[in-house]
Design a protein that fits this description.
Length: 341
């Protein structure tokens, strides 16, 4: 009697290199024709794993349809479109490609910081309009010697801060409630760790690198935005909902802030009523900080490799719900490094 072939559901297409890995292993691929729940739901009944992009949320209702489901592997770094509590209850291992987009998102963040500081949008607009004398308005500002405040000092936050310190000569403040003492000690020579209020009051540029949780939702509300220095710049390439968009747009309109670089929105795509769309001091990008061809390919390949690892009896990397590994269902899984000893 032949062994059952593992089946992987793709709610959205993935990059050719990643799909080829599945095909080479003889895995059965279910490609959904739509990301609508009603299209994905019946396919889940046949799936052992899901390689998940961002077009659909794996809700409790969907996860519970997967009687064979063993893995949900995110191509992205976050897993806010997965009900991890439900996955854990169902014994489903959730993992993500955290770390794969670090340098890509950091580059996008730096691009926004530099574009805002050097007033590239305004200078481009005026030059095209024939106002060459705009050069005498001295709109750009120096960043050397200015203070960067990073909210969140994980992989991306630290990378942005390090580049700003070493390449641009900026001073660095960092706020992170979850950073370890060892990590702080490692970087104390070039970073001052402080509270959120001190950071907001002292930084010339504030950059956000934290996940969206119940704790961080609305973290930068009208009162905290009001604490920021006049003319300060704010950049968010993490998640929408952390910054109150109405309060931010108001601060920009009043001239209290010098500019904002926003890649993420509370509602995506943002509705036409979103006040940031009309804010001339804001540079807006469509949640694209990690979406280079190279990064998307890398994240998809890693997502597939984690699924194949699990099929081979190994614990996949970057498990988002490690408590699920205590389930008897996964007593046979081993760490790959243990095999190499």
């Amino acid at each position: 009697m032949s062994a059952r072939v593992n089946t992987v559901l793709l709610p959205e297409p993935i990059e050719d290199e990643a799909r080829k890995l599945l095909e080479e292993r003889g895995v059965s691929i279910l490609q959904s024709q739509s990301t609508k729940p009603e299209a994905v739901r019946p396919l889940l009944e046949m799936a052992d794993a899901v390689v998940l992009r961002t077009g659909i949320r794996m809700s409790a209702e969907l996860i519970e349809c997967g009687s064979r489901l063993a893995a949900i592997s995110r191509t992205g770094a976050g897993f806010d479109n997965v009900d991890t509590d439900s996955a854990t209850r169902m014994g489903v291992i959730v993992s993500s490609s955290v770390g794969a987009n670090t340098y890509t998102v950091a580059e996008h963040t730096l691009a926004l910081i530099l574009a805002l500081a050097k007033q590239l949008q305004a200078l481009d607009r005026e030059t095209r309009a024939g106002n060459f004398r705009i050069r005498y308005s001295y709109l750009p500002r120096d960043l050397r010697g200015a203070t960067l405040g990073t909210i969140g000092f994980g992989r991306i936050g630290r990378e942005v801060a390090h580049k700003c310190a070493t390449a641009l000569g900026m001073k660095v403040l960092a706020f992170d409630t979850y950073i370890s003492d060892a990590a702080m000690e490692r970087d104390r020579s070039w970073v001052k760790f402080c509270g959120l209020e001190e950071l907001l009051e002292s930084a010339d540029v504030v950059t956000i690198h934290i996940p969206l949780t119940a704790e961080t939702k609305g973290l930068l509300d009208s009162q905290r935005i009001a604490r920021m220095r006049k003319g300060a710049l704010i950049v968010n390439t993490s998640r929408g909902g952390i910054v109150d968009e109405g309060s931010l747009a108001d601060a920009l309109a009043r001239g209290n802030l010098g500019g904002a670089g926003i890649d993420v929105f509370e509602q995506e795509p943002p509705p036409t009523s979103n006040p940031l769309l009309a804010a001339p001091a804001a540079i807006l990008t469509p949640h694209a900080a990690a979406l280079t061809e190279e990064c998307v390919r890398r994240m998809a390949v890693l997502a597939v490799e984690r699924v194949l690892d699990q099929f081979d009896g190994f614990i996949p990397e970057n498990v988002a719900n490690p408590e699920v590994l205590t389930s008897p269902r996964w007593s046979n899984l081993r760490r790959r490094e243990d095999q190499q000893r």
